[in-house]
Design a protein that fits this description.
Elements (H helix, E strand, L loop, with lengths): L3 H11 L3 E3 H10 L5 H5 L13 H4 L2 H17 L8 E6 L5 H16 L1 E6 L3 H11 L5 E3 L2 H7 L3 E7 L8 E6 L4 E10 L3 E7 L4 H4 L15 E4 L1 H10 L5 E11 L14 E4 L2 E3 L12 E3 L2 E2 H10 L2 E8 H7 L12 H4 E8 L2
Parallel strand pairs: 2-3, 2-5, 3-4, 5-10, 10-14
Antiparallel strand pairs: 1-7, 6-7, 6-9, 7-8, 10-16, 11-12, 11-13, 15-16
Length: 346
């Protein structure tokens, strides 16, 4: 296997010397040999991890999702010829959320479902199989594959998945009176550095409300997770019926994404938040993440014929499903996460 220096040299050479930030983020997170999720991640939650999730901090979310599964299973069971309702968790991390859901369902509830997971990270997939064993009906590398196995009908859940999708990164230029896209260059002597390119799809960006504001300042940054749109369009044709629950940190308010020269991009290492130029240190050994714009998520989902049932705070979701006393339902953290509930439209 090549060393990191040779890997970066090859990647940038093939790309002509520079990569759009979205591609850089994809490699830093998902390359199987050098990416954070592809190779370096050790665990989720706990002292040895770089970050924790709601599921690793409390059991309330598992119990609430279990009740959601029971509710939605009643709606889907008539469409499932084999009698068991498939549940697909995408990006299960350590498997702790899945374990909590299965425990909360009880033996009767577990007999009514088949629990599948989708995981692209080899280290995490191994951890999930070790933790969940024969309680898993299947472990898959893509949602398309999982849906095909489930004959197109399934309940789908994810927790803190979307924030790790690669994002395009933009910077406002006063001289251009427009955004520039952030690209990354690498040299053996100077390492990684940002460069700025004009945007070929500037007119399309202006159709997105938060890109139309006239009060940007020099150097202000903002992200767009176009990769999520492509991902939704890739697998929704395989989904015939069911419901999906998407939980993540972010907002639907454009104003919440106005963070000046830092944007919402940051890295995490040993539970420490890193912003600015520090996100480029230790390639592949730190988690990279952005806040999820749920307005984009709703818009892209509706374009794929997904019907929005509700978009509510995690605090409200936990309360609605009997977990209002849970630590993750408290003010602050309970409102920092949103829960999107959608149905597959025929």
């Amino acid at each position: 296997m090549a060393d990191l220096r040779s890997f970066l040299q090859a990647q940038f050479a093939v790309a002509g010397g520079s990569l759009p930030f979205e591609r850089y983020m994809e490699l830093a997170l998902y390359d199987p040999d050098f990416g954070y999720y592809g190779h370096h991640i050790k665990s989720v939650g706990g002292e040895r991890a770089d970050f924790a999730t709601s599921a690793t901090l409390s059991g309330g979310l598992s119990r609430a999702i279990a009740r959601w599964i029971e509710q939605r299973s009643d709606d889907l069971s008539a469409l499932v010829p084999q009698g068991k309702v498939p549940v697909i968790e995408v990006g299960p991390g350590s498997g702790e959320l899945a374990e909590g859901i299965l425990r909360a369902l009880g033996w009767r509830g577990r007999r009514r479902i088949d629990y599948h997971v989708v995981e692209v990270s080899a280290p995490l997939a191994r951890a999930q199989r070790e933790r969940l064993g024969r309680r898993l009906a299947g472990s898959h590398q893509s949602l398309e594959q999982a849906l095909d196995v489930c004959q197109g009908s399934s309940l789908i859940i994810s927790n803190e998945l979307i924030d790790a999708f690669p994002a395009r990164l933009f910077r406002w230029s006063e001289s251009l009176a427009d955004f520039e896209e952030v690209w990354i260059e690498w040299s053996e002597s100077g390492g990684l550095r940002e460069v700025f390119h004009s945007i070929s799809d500037s007119a399309d960006l202006r159709q997105i409300p938060r890109f139309r504001s006239n009060d940007w300042r020099e150097g202000d940054r903002i992200e767009l997770q176009s990769s999520v749109d492509r991902w939704l369009r890739s697998w929704t044709p395989h989904w015939r019926a069911g419901a999906m629950l998407t939980i993540d940190y972010g907002s639907e308010e454009d104003a919440d994404f106005r963070r000046g020269s830092l944007g919402t991009l940051r890295a995490y290492s040993r539970h420490q938040r890193i912003t600015g130029g520090g996100v480029y240190a230790q390639f592949g050994k730190r988690d990279l993440t952005v806040d999820v714009h749920f307005g984009d998520l709703v818009r892209w989902g509706e374009a794929c014929r997904l019907r929005t049932v509700s978009l509510r705070s995690q605090r409200r979701f936990l309360s609605d499903y009997g977990e209002s006393a849970d630590v993750m339902a408290r003010d602050g953290v309970g409102d920092a996460f949103l829960v999107l509930d959608v149905l597959r439209q025929k």
